[in-house]
Amino acid sequence: MSASKRLAKASNTTARRPPRASQAEADTPDMGAGGEVVDLERYVPAFLTWIANKLSRGASQHYLRVFDVGIETWRCMVLLATEGSISAQQVSRVIGMDKSSVSRCFKSMQERELITLELDAKDGRLRMATLTPKGRRLHDQIVGVALERERVFLSVLSEAEHETLIRLLKRLHENLPEVESATERYVAQRFARADKHSGA
């Protein structure tokens, strides 16, 4: 059974753990027929992606069924409730949503009278979204579900582990610009020559 299948099965059943690999084995990259491959049981970006995808899918199912609110709308509502007023550009920077997706989300929320949109007094090029009383009431209903999901999700951690996790996640989040810079350098060093040949 592949690593991905074992991990998928582990979310529903408790599987017998395989013997622990020696340190030498752990330090040796997995090699497939074509060379080095990703070890899905230790590749951190994969775990972060799977967790985020499954949490989002589950939340979206409940929010749509009960409140007729999709996960992107909820994410915008969270920022609006926290910040008071916010632009689509700000939402895009904070949570990484595409700006066009945020704009569509704002348009839908405005049509449902969940937000108002007005020009920013300091920058007339920006349109600032603000929750209406109806939007705030809806947010206050959904937030209870969101916090309960978080409580259960983190219930397997001690309070100290929870605090450590928050610190580590913040550190990783702050390191994302360096990841992009390093990727640019890696691609330029490893593939620049191939790009030149392909363009010739």
How would you sum up this structure, described in words?
- The protein has about 200 residues and is mainly alpha-helical.
- The chain has a domain at about 40-175: Winged helix-like DNA-binding domain superfamily/Winged helix DNA-binding domain (Arc Repressor Mutant, subunit A).
- Helices cover about 65% and strands about 10% of the residues.
- The chain has 9 helices and 5 strands, in the order ααββααβααββααα.
- Mean pLDDT is about 85; it is low at about 15-20 and about 25-30.
- Keywords: DNA-binding, Transcription, Transcription regulation.
- InterPro entries: HTH_MarR-typ (IPR000835), Metal_resp_HTH_trans_reg (IPR052067), WH-like_DNA-bd_sf (IPR036388), WH_DNA-bd_sf (IPR036390).
Overall number of strands = 5
Radius of gyration: 22 Å
| Sheet with the most strands: spatial strand order | 3-5-4
Largest sheet: 3 strands, antiparallel
